[in-house]
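Annotated sample (chain length 347).
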Amino acid sequence: MATVMSLFGTSEWLLFGLWVFAIVWPITYALRHRTSLALSITVGLLLAYLVQVLCQFGIVNGWIEGWLWWDYVLIPNRISGAAWFHTFFSAGFLHSQFDATHVLGNILVIALIGVPLEQRLGTRRFALIYAIGLFGGSFAWFLLNSSSPTPSLGASGAAFGLFGAYLAGWPKDEIPFPLILIRKWPVLYIALFYFGMEVFRAYQTLGLRQASDVAHMAHLGGFLATYILLPLVAKNGPYPLGIEDGGPTSSGGERSRLNQMRSAMIDMSSTVDPWTARGMPIPRAIRDPLRSLLASADEPETRLAWMEHLADVAECPDCQASLGVVERASGPQLQCSIEPEHLTWPE
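Output written by the structure step:
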């Protein structure tokens, strides 16, 4: 398997390494600190695109000899066995440096659709759905163009996969989206509008044989793959399929989320506070709020309020950094703002 990477010099390796870091760092940060994976993916896609723009600038100025990512785009006619299998996924982290609207459009969809879908699924299931949409789009394009030497790249298959998954799971959720007007729309309307548009465009491209540089069948492939597999992925997840509470951003969705949290909250009646556990005296400023927290923390809202008060007046007992409050399925937790391993309570 001849690779372009075998010809890399120092400048090429540095730029390629920067591209890998731009993708991996936001995702790693999200998984480590348990923040939104959907948002981290959008940050990674945007940073990776900026590295590609920098690459083009380097080509124009003679710093590097050519485009660096030929080993990672999907080229259907070179797929044989497992040799280029990785391109079914890696192509989803590349975009044409000459088409900023492509990457920005994908980022918009992943952020607006992905964040509430991640809240419905949880991080791990969301990651799996994203991967299914990405692979489904790439594989559909490969099946329909197996003899083509034309490279394919972009996160559109994964983005459309989010539409398909959300439609299959919670079609009546209402989420803010710029569909004609910027307002909350039921997922049913948003997903079917985009799906219908892609069917029409695919018909124009294939049925009427009009040229297009957009892989419409890849979009449909990602959509259908996640639509079919979402019930399996979401089984035993945080929310039952089809629940009608308005969605994660609505008051009904918030109430449902809090009810789910209450049923799984850690019982704090037998927990030991972080200072006592370390053999340290409890700071005077937090004795009363800590006592109130332990005495009246059966409701998620109450626990969250006292946790936030503690975060305002207390410091990490290990490094004296400020504290923050993060929400988990098992309830809110105090966490060190510098290093969560120093303090995450209650565990």
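Annotation: The two ends are 49 Å apart (CA to CA).
Annotation: Residues 100 and 330 are 41 Å apart (CA to CA).
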